[in-house]
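Input (structure):
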């Protein structure tokens, strides 16, 4: 068997998925004050899949390292990842989570190189910005093969290749690639486990490295390439009407110039 898997799992701290987002009074972004934050659901799936790989192939997986970029409070999501089975973690501290995917990808590239990772498993997108770009950009920067929107991940017998099943329109697509590679996870890949209180207590003893984005990652341009002009609620849908016959339906459609 080839060298063991060293898995890197990026996780993002986002407003909890069960909370309905509200636009702030300035219409500049979503309101985040006094709200519950948690691990990004797609990243939670990535953590679960990485831990399952280690449980299923204990001799093939050397380590799972979680990493997050954000404020000091992002330690919470890293502790959750550690409680679920990750071995160690890194917090790249920055006072804002509003960093574009290219910046995050460049940070992750350095972490991959520093940790000598050969498999990166991350959520296909974050539920706050919905960019769905980081995995693809990281694959481009590293010049690694990628398998996006994974709904099934299988480590092959040679220990150096991974088969990934992807859901596509009308069916499934199966791709196989040799390590190192990037995998982004979709919702139907698995159901994440709960972080139990005993495991959360044990997670406090696991390594959590702290770095500073501006100090330890010099040379990365943090200036945004996009400008957010306005954030607003979607328009409220008007109520529908009932018609008593097909003729009346056709008449209404003609009035609306839909036929």
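Output (sequence):
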């Amino acid at each position: 068997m080839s060298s063991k898997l060293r898995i890197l799992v990026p996780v993002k701290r986002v407003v909890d998925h069960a909370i309905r987002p509200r636009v702030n009074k300035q219409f500049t972004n979503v309101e985040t004050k006094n709200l519950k934050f948690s691990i990004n659901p797609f990243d939670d799936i990535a953590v679960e899949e990485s831990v399952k790989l280690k449980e299923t192939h204990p001799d093939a997986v050397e380590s799972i390292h979680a990493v997050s970029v954000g404020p000091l409070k992002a330690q919470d999501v890293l502790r959750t990842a550690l409680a679920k089975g990750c071995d160690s973690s890194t917090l790249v501290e920055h006072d804002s989570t509003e960093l574009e995917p290219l910046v995050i990808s460049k940070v992750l590239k350095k972490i991959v190189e520093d940790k000598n990772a050969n498999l990166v498993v991350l959520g296909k997108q974050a539920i706050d910005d919905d960019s769905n770009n980081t995995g693809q950009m990281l694959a481009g920067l590293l010049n690694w093969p990628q398998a996006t929107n994974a709904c099934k991940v299988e480590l092959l017998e040679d220990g150096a290749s991974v088969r990934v099943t992807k859901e596509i329109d009308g069916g499934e697509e199966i791709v196989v690639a040799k390590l190192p590679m990037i995998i982004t996870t979709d919702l139907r890949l698995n159901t994440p486990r709960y972080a139990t209180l005993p495991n959360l207590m044990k997670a406090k003893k696991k390594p959590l490295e702290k770095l500073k984005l501006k100090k330890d990652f010099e040379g990365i341009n943090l200036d945004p390439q996009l400008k957010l002009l306005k954030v607003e609620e979607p328009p409220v849908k008007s109520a529908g009407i009932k018609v008593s016959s097909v003729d009346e339906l056709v008449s209404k459609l003609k009035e609306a110039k839909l036929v």
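Notes: The radius of gyration is 22 Å. The first helix runs from residue 41 to 56.
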